[in-house]
From TrEMBL:
CDD domains named among the record's database cross-references: SAV4209_like
Family: Belongs to the enoyl-CoA hydratase/isomerase family.
SUPFAM superfamilies: Thioesterase/thiol ester dehydrase-isomerase
Species of provenance: Klenkia taihuensis
PANTHER family: (3R)-HYDROXYACYL-ACP DEHYDRATASE SUBUNIT HADB (PTHR43841:SF3), 3-HYDROXYACYL-THIOESTER DEHYDRATASE HTDX-RELATED (PTHR43841)
Name of the protein in question: Acyl dehydratase
Occurrences of domain MaoC-like (ranges): 19-111
Amino acid sequence: MAAVVRRADVEVGTELPPQTSRVTRADLVRYAGASGDFNVIHWNERVATEVGLPGVIAHGMLTAGLAARAVTAWAGDPGALVEYSVRFSRPVVVPDDGVGAEVVVAGRVAALLDDGRVRVDLTVTSGGEKVLSLARAVVQL
């Protein structure tokens, strides 16, 4: 676990270290089993493209979870994440090539709040495209 970030060491503009995660089709199978979300668009290329998607896509909540993990890794304590919200702006397309897709999470402290809390604004991309918008976390430091 990373060292716990202290409020005294943080100011508006403090950047979180970028975190890159790789998502493969095998990860989608594992996530489906854990979440119970077996929607066909997360494993069947033919169905995904028939419904207008560019291919098999990662579960939205998996993508949101990867972004949350970047915040908790920075904070050094999963319990420090007290509020979290995202909007899904574009799917993460996961090719069937054994390599998968990269999800890159970057963030910066956007506001210092009361009681030692900070608001972190996140930028989450895959393939150079923003996949989450209005991604924000409130962290208790």
